[in-house]
Amino acid sequence: MRALVGVKRVIDYAVKVRVKGDGSGVETAGVKMSMNPFCEIAVEEAVRLKEKGILKEIIAVSIGPAQAQETIRTALAMGADRGMHVKHDDILQPLAVAKLLKAVAEKEKPDMILLGKQAIDDDCNQTGQMLASLMGWPQATFASKVDVEGSNLTVVREIDGGLETIGMKLPAVITTDLRLNEPRYATLPNIMKAKKKKIDATDPAELGVDVSSKLQTVKVVEPPTRQAGGVVGSVQELMAKLKEKSLI
User: Fold this and answer.
1) Residue ranges of domains in the chain, CATH in brackets
2) At residue 190, does pLDDT exceed 90?
3) What is the mean pLDDT of residues 185-212?
4) How far apart are CA 142 and CA 149, in angstroms?
5) pTM of the entire structure?
6) Sheet of 139-149, strand order
């Protein structure tokens, strides 16, 4: 079996995000970037499936500017076999990303597609679902456990009410949740080997995909500073404060 794993380059989770002065977006110049944490989990799961002998090849694909190749190299150092870079410098909406991944999948013919459930920069949580719909494949979102037996896939997924176990036939789209695994650190020897692994390059035009945005960002602002709370000495005082602020 072969797996296609999506990896996204985002602002590092430990960096405080700053809004641009003109309110057109967030500042990325000179900011530390890294692989989206949920994408790391997807790569780790694919590598574990390969170590079990279930997968034969893992293809890491990233859509973005030239620097996205660094993210692909990280996936290669973790254990992916080769990379695919879809070159695009502008921000893409989830539907455009899903269409590009569909085009790549039609070319690579994977048996499964693994994606992080969401990216920490936009928190859209839409790409996996849209991709499954476009491909006409079953989907297992928010996966916290994945078992593969032949062409049968069993996934335990996290839902509001607890856990849900579903079964389906491959090929399928899987989106990964936090508790699925703990991604490994790439070792120095694997980092060196990753430099020699192949990364193919393409772009939306070559894939025949229209990525023009149907949405327009009007303005980006930081959330308002939260006002300090107060301490009350009794339930009666609390009720009085709530009435004073016309909250009850």
Assistant:
1) 2-244 (3.40.50.620)
2) yes
3) 94
4) 20
5) 0.87
6) 162-169, 152-159, 139-149, 172-176, 112-116, 2-6, 57-64, 82-87, 199-202
Beta-bridged to residue 170, according to DSSP, are none
Both tokens of 126, joined, read 């839409």
Helices 68-78 and 37-51, packing angle to 10 deg: 30
Short-list 18, 31, 54, 86, CA closest to 174: 54
Residue 28, pLDDT above cutoff 90:
no
71 exposure class (CB count in 10 Å sphere: 0-12, 13-18, 19+): buried
| pLDDT surpassing 90 at residue 215 | no
What is residue 187's DSSP assignment? P
pLDDT at residue 76, rounded to an integer: 97
Give the residues across from 4 on adjacent strands.
59, 113
Is the confidence at residue 227, as pLDDT, over 90?
Answer: no
Euclidean distance between CA atoms 188 and 194, whole angstroms: 10
Opening angle at CA 210, ends 208 and 215, nearest 5? 165
Q: For residue 135, what are its two tokens?
A: 């491909």
pLDDT at residue 165 tops 90: yes
Q: Residue 155 in contact with residue 143, Cβ under 8 Å?
A: yes
Q: How far is the CA of 193 from the CAs of 16, 40, 64, 187, 203, in angstroms?
A: 32, 19, 23, 10, 26
